[in-house]
Design a protein that fits this description.
- The complex is a heterodimer of chains A (563) and B (260).
- Chain A is built from 20 helices and 13 strands.
- Chain A has 563 residues and is an alpha+beta fold.
- Chain A has two domains: 199 residues, no CATH class; 351 residues, no CATH class.
- The longest helix of chain A has 39 residues.
- Chain A is elongated.
- Chain B has a single domain, classed as Rossmann fold.
- Chain B has a six-stranded mixed sheet, with helices on both faces.
- In chain B, helix 4 packs parallel to helix 7, helix 6 crosses helix 7 and helix 7 runs parallel beside helix 8.
- The chains are: A alpha+beta (563), B alpha/beta (260).
Chain lengths: 563, 260
């Protein structure tokens, strides 16, 4: 009884104990905040890393792909069909994308992924990463509503805005051609691919080099060939009445690069059959507007409605790879928030990519694929599915991986980072523990006489020790309790706090140009909170063991003599 | 508890009629020395003293004569190097720690020169503390009212009703010493050990405290062993033991001390 009474009294009357409570509290609060933010970051990061990756990916070892797509998918279905929610076949290949910006050609390396958007949307998030489905928010004000409604399935049609934009620049093109204006102006609005040298002609060879290639590329190669003849260097697209061959041979280049099919639009306002979703990272850059308080703005070098040129390699069965080029219209901008993907990926309609790479079998009309993306019903079965698929396919032909395995090193890095941080933070609490140790020794010294009195009144050594141990426990409980509350409140209002600090110091604490997140992501794991609180309590008790033993061992006579 | 009831009962025999051979507490050939650095400093060099039931004994001597040490040894606050302490004929100094703790709690009551009240606790809580120490949490809570009533009654007896909720720091020295006596009494001890109970008090307060002690001795038959360096205070006891350099110098009987 006296133990509890004294323990409570000491807690209320010793202000120095407040110091240890505060140190425990700060340690606990810090750990909770940092862990929540770390876990928020890593959760967000995992989500983004997972992002456009399907749960399980079956890839061919080479980029030439497999022409037995249907059979392969049947094998997958048979081997692990009960775990699979959806799958889609894709063609992945490295390539280059060229566009013109500020009067220069800009060529960037990209990963081309030929997808069927509806199938792709089933195996992973796609719609939420496409710009036309998002509203644009600036300073909390919606400056542009979504261009497409969320229930519209992803496709390859231009939005009205993009059509309008395309029309404008085609008009301007004509106008410029009409008036023979040298192209020496402006940024951003000039059409891509006006001729620098009569290079249009040089684009032809790949298609004429082998008849077979031509056959595969175009469904009506004879027409294409005729047009090809017509459309040699300075002659522009047929209905472009006015020509400025010396300076504008832009349009002829398109058919050159990719001979049009029957449905090939002649009207330059119509988009090309090859359509793209281009990752935002390659075609835009964040930019601080010095005239507008250094506000971060995104500058676009390519917009939906623009045409870009894609170069890649062919994958014609039985032939060595050849360079291939085609012009494609950008339909949408893809932004997943993972810079790795956004700066790398360009999605193309699968059919057109297969055509361009000569992957369509002339006999069967079926296209080859390089990977099958699989969405599982429950990701817990991933290991099982991997095992089954690896057994189902002959080794060497396909590589079966989960998205985590594909992103292994990065995920491991995040985990290690978070583990190291936790160790460091726990050291902070240990420091708090030593603070308790020191303060407790002080309190024991201060209370020496009282300990002597208690012993004279018949208290046992164990009883005296219990006072100080439960005192330590009480400090730990109060400290970690308050710490937990403060930590959770901090996490709850972390963005408001960030804003307040930004406002106070005038320096941006959390720069959204560095991270892709507009706000600081947090995730509170109850287990972590409990663990931290318990850990702090245990440390508080451990720190009070030594002083408590010292108190217990005090000799009553010496303690009483102490004045 | 049987001892308690006889002690506190109305029929308790007056000390003067007690059998002189009935030893209540006895010290046999006590030797005690302390180590100071490498030097062994002898404090008690063979002390024999026995205290009868209901006796009021004063131990006097100069500073450093070992009188406080003798008191501590008798009260089991310390253990002797050589010699024995007997309580009612049974050796108690070699008992295990928990048994000695219990004896300190139940049999001995302590009063100190500097009162030694717990500063965090109110007067009532201070007085209750021996009972709190004696009983576990559950038992204490079960008999809480009873204990508090007993504590209040004792506080009333030492005349501190009006100080019940006060902290020691809010009381005068005399009040604190009376509070300490109340604390010692609440455990219903058989023997009261007082270490310079008036040493820190003014004459008036000292007189009050001594009156209280004498009353307790005479009316309730409480055995009191009091250490003091003040002869006038010591003379209020039945008997005086004078210590000099760790030895008993004069063992005056009650008559001689009272008349002297």
């Amino acid at each position: 009884m006296y133990k509890i009474l004294l323990c409570l009294r000491y807690l209320r009357t010793r202000y120095i104990a407040l110091a240890s409570i505060i140190s425990v509290m700060l340690g606990v609060a810090t750990m909770i905040v940092v862990n929540s933010v770390m876990s928020g970051f890593s959760g967000e990061m995992r989500e983004r890393l997972h992002g456009i990756l399907a749960d399980v990916i079956v890839e061919t070892s080479g980029i030439e792909g497999s022409h037995t797509a249907d059979e392969d998918m049947a094998i997958v279905e048979q081997a692990a069909g009960q775990f699979i929610k959806a799958m889609t076949a894709t063609v992945e290949v490295y390539g280059m994308m060229s566009f013109q910006y500020a009067g220069q050609y800009v060529t960037v390396p990209v990963t081309l992924i030929g997808i069927d958007p509806k199938g792709k949307a089933q195996v992973g998030p796609l719609v939420q990463y496409l710009d036309s489905y998002q509203e644009v928010v600036e300073d909390g004000v919606v400056t542009r509503p979504p261009l497409r409604s969320a229930d519209e399935p992803p496709g390859w049609e231009l939005t009205d805005a993009a059509k309008e934009y395309r029309k404008t620049w085609v008009e301007m093109q004509r106008w410029r051609e009409d008036f023979n204006i040298e192209d020496r102006y402006g940024v951003g609005h000039e059409p891509p691919f006006h001729e620098v040298s009569p290079a249009g002609a040089t684009d032809a060879p790949p298609f004429t080099s082998t008849e077979q290639a031509e056959e595969v590329i175009t469904t009506s190669h004879s027409t294409a060939a005729e047009e090809l003849d017509e459309l040699t260097p300075e002659v522009p697209a047929t209905d472009l009445a006015s020509q400025g061959p010396e300076f504008e041979t832009e349009l002829p280049e398109f058919p050159d690069a990719f001979p049009p099919t029957d449905e090939e639009p002649i009207d330059p306002e119509d988009p090309f059959p090859a359509r793209l979703y281009v990752g935002a990272g390659k075609i835009s850059f964040p930019w601080r507007d010095p005239e507008n308080e250094g506000k971060v703005k995104v500058h676009w070098m390519v917009r939906p409605g623009d045409d870009v040129k894609i170069s890649t390699v062919s994958a014609v069965a039985g032939m060595p790879p050849e360079p291939r080029h085609f012009v494609a219209t950008v339909v949408d901008v893809f932004k997943s928030g993972m810079s790795e993907y956004d700066a790398q990926l360009v999605f193309c309609n699968r059919e057109e990519l297969q055509k361009a790479r000569g992957m369509i079998d002339p006999n069967t009309g079926k296209g080859s694929i390089t990977s099958i993306q699989i969405k599982l019903k429950d990701y817990q079965h991933a290991d099982e599915v991997i095992r089954r698929l690896q057994a189902a396919f002959p080794p060497g032909r396909y590589v079966v991986k989960t998205w985590e395995q594909k992103q292994g090193p990065l995920l491991a890095a995040v985990e290690i980072e978070s583990a190291i941080l936790n160790v460091l933070l726990f050291l902070i609490i240990t420091v708090a523990g030593f603070g308790i140790l020191a303060i407790f020794f002080m309190i024991v010294v201060e209370k020496t006489r009282d300990i002597g009195i208690l012993k004279a009144l018949g208290a046992s050594s164990g009883g005296v020790m219990t006072i100080f141990l439960s005192y330590g426990l009480a400090l730990g409980v109060v400290g970690s309790g308050v710490g937990v509350v403060i930590g959770l409140l901090f996490v709850r209002y972390i963005n408001e706090i960030e804003e307040a600090i930004t406002w106070l110091t005038g320096r941006k604490v959390f720069d959204e140009t560095i991270y892709y997140f507009p706000t600081i992501p947090t995730h509170v794991e109850p287990g972590m909170v409990v663990g931290v609180a318990l850990g702090a309590m245990i440390i508080a008790i451990l720190a009070s063991v030594l002083p408590a033993r010292r108190a217990a061992r005090l000799h009553p006579v010496e303690a009483l003599r102490y004045e | 508890m049987t001892v308690d009831s006889t002690l506190h009962s109305e029929e308790a025999p007056s000390p003067r009629t007690l059998n002189m051979l009935e030893h209540h507490v006895r010290a046999v050939a006590l030797e005690k020395s302390y180590l100071k650095g490498n030097h062994k400093i002898p404090v008690l060099r063979g002390v024999n003293v026995s205290i009868r039931k209901g006796e009021f004994l004063s131990i006097v001597g100069q500073s450093g004569s070992g009188k406080s040490t003798l008191l501590h040894l008798l009260g089991l606050l310390d253990s002797p190097n050589v010699g024995e302490i007997e309580l009612q004929g049974k050796r108690i100094d070699d008992l295990p720690a928990h048994a000695r703790d219990e004896l300190r709690n139940r049999v001995f009551g302590f009063i100190f020169q500097f009162y030694h009240l717990l500063p965090e606790l109110s007067l009532l809580e201070n007085v209750l503390s021996p009972l709190m120490i004696r009983h576990g949490l559950r038992e204490y809570l079960r008999h809480r009212r009873e204990y508090r009533a007993a504590a209040r009654e004792i506080i009333g007896r030492v005349g501190l009703d009006h100080r019940m909720k006060h902290k020691p720091s809010e009381m005068s020295g005399g009040e604190m010493q009376r509070a300490a006596i109340a604390r010692a009494l609440v455990a219903r001890p058989q023997i009261l050990l007082a270490d310079e109970p008036t040493g820190n008090l003014d004459a008036q307060s000292g007189r009050e405290v001594m009156d209280l002690l004498r009353r307790l001795n005479e009316l309730e038959g409480l055995t009191i062993i009091m250490v003091t360096h003040d002869d006038s205070i010591a003379r209020q006891a039945h008997r005086i033991v004078r210590l000099n350099e760790g030895r008993i110098e004069v063992l005056g009987d009650q008559a001689s001390t009272r008349t002297g």
